[in-house]
């Protein structure tokens, strides 16, 4: 079976601080990239589901992103809304590291 997934280079791994987030815009849409404490990478929709604020401006702790506007929180690995006022989960996208680059599958 052939993998037909299209991977897009979003940034270098070093562009994201450990336990940090980075905004990534592609084809008119905004995404958030995360670097976990174990150096794994993750990608979610870039806007909070509560009020469309850019999540990459929020606080990352362990595997959680806190929205900078109303402190709603999500598990960025699964997109699960963890704390009100966020009650709708985030869309997540596959992400991986290849030769020091962060690549995401947005299709």
TrEMBL record:
InterPro entries: MocE_2FeS (IPR012747), Rieske_2Fe-2S (IPR017941), Rieske_2Fe-2S_sf (IPR036922)
Residue ranges of domain Rieske in the record: 8-104
Pfam families on file: Rieske (PF00355)
Domain of life (superkingdom): Bacteria
Keyword Iron-sulfur: yes
Keywords assigned: 2Fe-2S, Iron, Iron-sulfur, Metal-binding
Alphabetized NCBIfam families for the sequence: MocE_fam_FeS
Name of the protein in its database record: MocE family 2Fe-2S type ferredoxin
Species for this entry: Paracoccus spongiarum
């Amino acid at each position: 079976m052939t993998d037909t997934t299209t991977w897009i280079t979003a940034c270098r791994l070093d562009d994201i601080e450990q336990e940090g987030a980075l905004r990534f815009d592609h084809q008119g849409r905004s995404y958030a990239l995360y670097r976990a404490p174990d150096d794994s990478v993750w990608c979610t929709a870039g806007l909070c589901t509560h009020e469309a604020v850019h999540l990459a401006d929020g606080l990352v702790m362990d595997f959680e992103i806190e929205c900078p506007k109303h402190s709603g929180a999500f598990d960025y690995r699964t997109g699960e809304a963890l704390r009100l006022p966020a009650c709708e989960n985030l869309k997540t996208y596959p992400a991986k590291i290849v030769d020091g680059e962060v690549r995401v599958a947005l299709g």
